[in-house]
Amino acid sequence: MDVSVLGRKDTVPDEVRALAYAKVAKLGRLNPVLERAEVRLTEDPDAPGAKRRKCEVTISGHGHTVRARAAAPDVLVAVDKVVDKLEHQLERLKGKRVARSHPRRNREVARA
């Protein structure tokens, strides 16, 4: 999976970039048809008091697009929350794809 980590208005530290890349790249194993992921790390200017960091991830490929966003005081916590949300969404997507490829059983009981 091709993963790009982007920051808005400021540069993303290398350790945060590496961690976000590693966690999002692992999601490619859940659904191998997804080809591209874009991670956007921003700061929420409307948050009261402490600065809130936002993480938005868009994964696309093969006609499917999956998005998630989360906010937390720490950027690493925001990345963890987004990865948890995406895992759930990708498992649902995989279930739909598998169910579509397997024919349903006929529910009528054959009488002898």
Task: Outline the structure in words.
With 112 residues, this protein is α+β, with helices and mostly antiparallel strands. The protein has a single domain, classed as Ribosome hibernation promotion factor-like (Double Stranded RNA Binding Domain), CATH 3.30.160.100. Helix content is 36%, strand content 30%. A four-stranded mixed β-sheet has the order 1-2-3-4, with helices on one face.
Can you summarize the main beta sheet?
4 strands, mixed
Would you list the SSEs in sequence order as H and E?
EHEEEH
| Tally of helical runs | 2
Global mean pLDDT: 87
Uncertain runs are: none
In CATH, the homologous superfamily goes by the name Ribosome hibernation promotion factor-like
Shape: elongated
SS elements, strand count: 4
CATH architecture, by name, is 2-Layer Sandwich
Which percent range describes the beta-strand content? Answer: 25-35%
Helix fraction? 25-40%
Radius of gyration: 19 Å
Secondary structure class reads alpha+beta
Span between N and C termini?
Answer: 53 Å
Provide the descriptors you would attach to this structure in a database record:
alpha+beta; Double Stranded RNA Binding Domain; 36% helix; 30% strand
Give a nutshell description of this structure.
Helices cover 36% and strands 30% of the residues.
Secondary-structure map:
Elements lengths: L1 E6 L6 H13 L9 E9 L7 E10 L2 E9 L2 H27 L11
Parallel strand pairs: 1-2
Antiparallel strand pairs: 2-3, 3-4
Helix pairs in contact: 1-2
